[in-house]
Amino acid sequence: MTQEYSYRWGHSALTADFDLNSRTPRLVRLARPDDAEFKTNAEAALPLVDVTLLGQGTGWSGPRFTGTALGQRLAHRAHHAAYGDGWHHLTVQLRDPASGLTVFVEYSSPDAVPVLRTRVRLRNDGDAPLTVRSVSSLLLGALPSPDVLDVHRARNDWLAECRWYAEELRESVPDVGRAFHGHDGRAGPRLAGRGSWPTDGHLAMGALTDRGEGRCWLWQIESAASWLWEAGEADHHTYLSLSGPTADDHQWRHVLDPGAEFTSEYAAIALGDGFDGALAALTAYRRLVRRPHPDHDRLPVVFNDYMNTLMGDPSTEKLLPLIDAAAEAGAEYFCVDAGWYDDEGAGRGEGRGGGWWDSVGAWLPSARRFPGPGGLEAVLDRIRERGMVPGLWLEPEVVGVRSPLAAELPDEAFLRHEGGVRVTEQGRHQLDLTHPDARAHLDRTVDRIVGDWGVGYLKLDYNITTSAPGLLAHTRAWLSWLSAVLDRHPGLVVENCGSGGLRMDGASLAVTQLQSTSDQQDMLRYPPIAAAAPTAVPPEQGAVWAYPQPEFTDEEIAFTLGTALLGRVHLSGHLDRMTSRQLDLVRDALLTYKGIRSDLCRSVPFWPLGLPGWGDAVVALGMRVPFLDTTYVLVWRRAGGDPEVALPVGNLAGREVEVDILHEAAVSPVGPVEWDGAALRVTLPEAPSVLLVRLAP
User: Does pLDDT of 353 surpass 60?
Assistant: First the structure.
């Protein structure tokens, strides 16, 4: 059924239909131009935005974020469309005469990409202060009925990141009998990320898929602080609400003085055929919104001394042979991880009540660990002499309670609880980057390390979490500070880490060059993380550990190296203790990676066996390179399972395909590897085993 709309906006890949003539303006339909029309009900379409102010509630009994009293009052004043730099923009201006609040709903979409990016700007045009308790970044109603939709979420925990799961939406949105009550139910899936680890518990993402027609709506909330999304039913249709922090869920509020403005966090929603199709669109969008940097095209191999190797206990004596071995293996960056500043002897994660854990903050090198002329800088020189770029680990946002800086910096330079009490977590205070003294301290630190010492890579870690007031402002200032650092040092490469993947959010990924995907130390548990990580981060930004060891069998060396070959290789392990034959295995795997990495930065992921389960015996990840008509498939057999696997590759179905084995087990090679016209059929006789192939028509 064709619908009539008062305003249509969009481009060749996306259209948004608005009803701007009704008392409350609504977004009636969001679709791709070739999507089949489906009947919509104007009453199911929600207001463009929902806002709650102190003293004005929701207009609805229950915890649901939609249906706010103020949202129903917002009247259309104007709208303006524009185009520039490959992006389409639309701003709809709304006004609430009762409060004096003016609302600007800002939509944007990149040309030819079916992704809508949204945020909401509030301005107090009244005479009295207004306290904002919540504001949606995107409010979308009139989606298909919960009867036909599945909802997808991704658990994200320390050492167990990116674990997607799905259920029928009706499981969370029961049909309560609207015909009898005249109201929809209050239940629905609802997820909130809390604190400065925004992806601790779940990714700030979700998806709805139509079981009948295969369409998918996939979203992310781009916040380095807290976030909330919920879905539910409105007049036999599904609605979706995405937002940053709220008063009820995060104890957040923002006072708007007359004339002042506040802007919500960004949210983005991608449309596609199935989850893989929507994720391809979201991947293209992520590449467009991030800060340009040469690293996104070069994809250099990084050796990091931490994982299963020095574990926060570096020294000149331990590092020099590792540096030589990493260079011989083919590493291009060498990062000295935690502990380089430690004169007290406690390794990372030890001595929470003593040692270096609660004394960090000055970030000066340890004379005990790096004795003799030059100290740490002599080690950095050795890295450069071996043809690699030196890097250092840093945890810049924290200051230990025993650090002299804890007394030197004013209280206002730290996040504080109500009453002015400093945040203290695990013996550390949390800096507040909105304060000039905190920012100046970090500027001095980075300019010394990068400008004076010549460090070209920083791994920025973050191992505490807090939900203190002011967190949203701090995280925005943090990303602003990072951008300014990269402006001053444009060649610097920054890795974002929050105890692995607990800070794997869209806002951080748009600024930093790499993202740690996990701290997982077990090579058999890493494949489902590595395979699912491209749902959260483009492959050229997703750092995956590969930690071969001299005590490993050749098959185990091949397995751990293979795990990283469709992401960013983060090499570790005691390469300095390996035999020349073992080091050749490492070198060969890195040569394979260097031969395909220029394709990865243009590839889009897919999952031949579906998104992996945490306990799956066989895990698979694919990468399509559309412009080259080339496809890569990586498959792991961890333990058990059927050694014979069929891996459907839909984009090549019905075509003759050449199969090229790029990486496999070193001694016990895989069995037959064949293309049957629709799927890649492989035999992995041993476990653990790994196989990387390239498919080309």
Answer: no
For the record, the structure tokens of 429 come out as 């205070």
From 692, 694, 695, 693, select the one nearest 562 (Cα to Cα): 692
Q: Maximum Cα–Cα distance for the chain, whole Å?
A: 84
- Cα 216 from Cα 382, distance rounded (Å): 51
For 364, other C-beta atoms within 10 Å of its C-beta total 14
**Taking the CB of residue 132, how many other CB atoms lie within 10 A of it?**
21
**Interior CA angle at 127 toward 121 and 132, to 5°?**
40
Phi, psi for residue 586 in degrees, rounded to 5: -65, -45
Residues 6+ apart with CB under 8 A from 378: 316, 370, 372
Are 388 and 331 in contact by the 8 Å Cβ rule? The answer is yes
- The string of pLDDT tens digits covering residues 490-520 is 999 999 999 999 999 999 999 999 999 999 9
Angle between helices 580-600 and 554-563 (to 10 degrees): 20
Give, for 266, the enclosing helix (H) or strand (E). strand 266-273
Reply yes or no: is the peptide bond before residue 688 cis, omega within 30 of 0.
Answer: yes
Q: How high is the mean pLDDT of the chain?
A: 94
Digit-coded pLDDT (tens) for 125-165: 999 999 999 999 999 999 999 999 999 999 999 999 999 99
**Helix 316-329 to helix 580-600 angle, to the nearest 10 degrees?**
60
Domains and CATH numbers, the chain: 7-289 (2.70.98.60), 295-516 (3.20.20.70), 606-696 (2.60.40)
Interatomic CA distance for residues 523 and 515, integer angstroms: 19
Cβ-based neighbours of 418, under 8 Å, separated by 6 or more:
469
Strand order in the sheet with 658-664: 604-606, 618-625, 630-637, 689-696, 658-664
Which of 264, 226, 266 shows the shortest CA–CA distance to 471?
A: 226
Is 455 a residue whose pLDDT tops 60? yes
In one-letter notation, the amino acid at residue 170 is R
User: Which residue do the tokens 């993202």 mark?
Assistant: 515
Give the Cα separation of 95 and 325 in Å (integer). 65
Q: Would you call 251 helix, strand, or coil by DSSP?
A: coil
Question: What are the percentages of helix, strand and coil residues in the chain, rounded to 5?
Answer: 25, 35, 45
Q: Which residues of 385-410 are buried (b: 16+ CB within 10 A; e: fewer)?
A: ebebbbbbbbbbbbbbbbbebbeebe
Spatial distance between the Cα atoms of 394 and 397, rounded to a whole number of angstroms = 9
Q: Going by DSSP bridges, is the β-strand pair 389-394/457-460 parallel, antiparallel, or unpaired?
A: parallel
The letter for the amino acid at 193 is G
Q: What pairing do the DSSP bridges indicate for beta strands 205-210 and 149-157?
A: antiparallel
Q: Which residues pair with 416 in a beta bridge?
A: 422
DSSP 347: P
| E strands, 39-100, in order | 51-53, 75-84, 87-96
Say what the pTM is. Answer: 0.97
